[in-house]
Structure formats: C-alpha cells, structure tokens
Amino acid sequence: MSTTVKGVIARTKGAEVELTDIVIPDPGANDVVVKIQSTGVCHTDLSYRDGDINDEYPFLLGHESAGVVEQIGEDVTHVEVGDFVVLNWRAVCGECRACRKGDTKNCFDTHNASKPMTLADGTELTAALGIGSFAEKTLVHEGQCTKVNPEADPAAVGLLGCGIMAGLGAAVNTGDIQIGESVAVFGLGGVGMSAISGAKLAGAAKIIAVDLDERKTEHAKEFGATHTITSKGMDEQQVIDKVRELTDGFGPDVTIDAVGIMPTWRQAFYSRDHAGRMVMVGVPNQTDQIEIPTIDFYSRGGSLKPAWYGDCLPERDFPAYTQLFENGQFPLDKFVSERIGLEDVEEAFETMKRGDVLRSVVIFDE
C-alpha cells in the first residue's frame, strides 16, 4: 500500500522549491523504503533546481542522507528492516564491463528503485541522483543503502552520501596522496574542506588551501591546512606563483580543483609539480570548455584525473569513515554548519550561495 509523505520538489527551472505531498509506492522486489533522519543541502540539488543537470522536471530533491530501513521488497537480502543506513548513488550493477574487470568504482549502470515516486495527482518525479530524500521517506534500490554504525550522528554520517565523500575520496583515492607529499586545494566549500581533511588523513606534510574568501581560508586551518592563500585581488598567475613558492618552487605533488570552473582548473593545472597529479572534483557546467595550449599539456608529466564520487566504494568507505569519525580521527561533525527543517531548503540554497555554510542539514522529526 502506498504512503503519502511531505517532500521538497523543484517543479520548473529556476523556480523556488515547493514542500508538497509525495506518494511512496510499495517497494518492488529489490527496493527499500527508508525513513529519512537527515539530508544535507548539496550544491547538486541547487543544480537540479536550476536546470544544470537535465530538464526532467519535476525533481524530488535531496540525496545526502541517513535513515532507517522501514520496508523491504520480497527479494531484498542486502539490508533488513531496522538497519541504519547512509544512502549512496553508486549501487554497482556487477554486470557491466567495468564491474566484470573488478573496476567497480567506474560502474555507470548503477541501480535505482524500480518504481517512480509521484505527486498526489500521479505525476512522476525524477529523484535527484536516483535518491530523492528531501522527504520524510524515500524509495531506493537495496544497493543504494550502506549500513553503518547506528550510534553515529545521522546529520554527520549522512554527508558521506555525496559531497564529503567526493572531496575526501578525491584526496585519498583519486589523488592517492602519500605520506609526506604536498597538496594544494582550490576552493573551500564542503568538497574542498573535505579534500583538506582527506589530505591530512593521508599524511600530507604540506596542505595549501586556496580561496577568494578569507573566512574560508582561516577555517581551513581547522581541517588540516598548513598554509593558506586568500586569492581575492590576485590574478591566476599570481596564485600559481604563490603556490609554487610555498613548495620550494616545484609545485605540489597533488593539486585538487574543488570548484570546477576554468580559473581554478588552470590554477591547479599550472601550479602542480612537473610530474604532479591534478584532480578535478568540482562539477563543471555543461557549457565550459578546457582551453590550454596543447604544448602545455604535452610538456608536463604526471596525470590529470576527474574524481567521480571521489572514486569511492560505499560498502568499503562509508563504514570505515564512520568508524574514523567515531574514533575522533575524521571530523565529519565539523561539516554540519546548521540543522534546519524541511521547509527551510530554499533559504538554505541562498545561505549556500553566500558561502556562509559548509552544509545545512535537514533534520526530520523522530
């Protein structure tokens, strides 16, 4: 029997979000209904609202979530009713070419729920990243549920579901930072700060945090930055020169673009060591082009890597980083800037755009 709950939708491009009734169908054979406890307000949700992802409106927004499994389909074996889970949008298929090679982090045929959630009038909703968790409950595939320590704070560990894992994974997995290496992170939102934390966790000796906003560069010290550059008023070459100066003229071993715009991309590309690794984890818009002289690409060694979801494997990484958080070794709770209600999502987007928070997190009543 279907269930009606409250949820936040984006009905049309650029319009303010709406809090309305959402119909959750009974789960299919491998589907799961999850009662949501927390959902982070991620920039990807704003991108869905503004039409920067696709135009499959209306969207049921929200995807950075933790909650409790409430109902399962007849063939579900991965979780049980009552399990505390973090939702993920990489439920690997196990059958595609990448999966069969054992390269599951590059699976692009991930599972989603077999049925759509709808508005009360039957209009089908497109769930953001296949999750749609700005709602009291949501319907997902069982593989989108990752069990973690049920004693952990949902507001904190739910952030592993997207942005924090993206930045953390960009440092630890994609960048493969080694003990004693130098790192520069460009852009200090939630993704950038988590890349700083990941670099510290990986044992980087020098971690340079770069941002236009002095508030953010100061804040980065709390997450592990050893050096900071407030780049407001500097041109790109001045930023590049300063980063290289801080690394004895060589440039960092690893640079991370956590914004996804061409100024930060170029700063990350040109400031790295001659054989350094550059990681792009910030999500670009659909019209940006990478334009550099071909000889500049050819004449540098190292590697250029995109970090899609921080190259994470949720079943491996979410429980591990939850445990590190519980041990006091990784500061997930520091990313929770404010706890808000479901009705406050539109205001949280404005707060995000002003750069006043790392994450606003929607908390649902028990």
From TrEMBL:
Example of a GO cellular component annotation carried by this entry: cytosol
Domain Alcohol dehydrogenase-like C-terminal positions: 190-326
GO BP term, pick one: formaldehyde catabolic process
SUPFAM superfamilies according to UniProt: GroES-like (SSF50129), NAD(P)-binding Rossmann-fold domains (SSF51735)
Coiled-coil segments on the chain, per record: none
InterPro entries per record: ADH-like_C, ADH-like_N, ADH_Zn_CS, GroES-like_sf, MycoS_dep_FDH, NAD(P)-bd_dom_sf
Cofactor: Zn(2+)
Molecular function in Gene Ontology: S-(hydroxymethyl)glutathione dehydrogenase [NAD(P)+] activity; zinc ion binding
Domain Alcohol dehydrogenase-like N-terminal: 28-149
Any Pfam family the entry gives: ADH_N
Assigned keywords, A-Z: Metal-binding, NAD, Oxidoreductase, Zinc
Membership in a protein family: Belongs to the zinc-containing alcohol dehydrogenase family.
PANTHER family in the cross-refs: ALCOHOL DEHYDROGENASE (PTHR43880), ALCOHOL DEHYDROGENASE CLASS-3 (PTHR43880:SF12)
Record protein name field: S-(Hydroxymethyl)mycothiol dehydrogenase
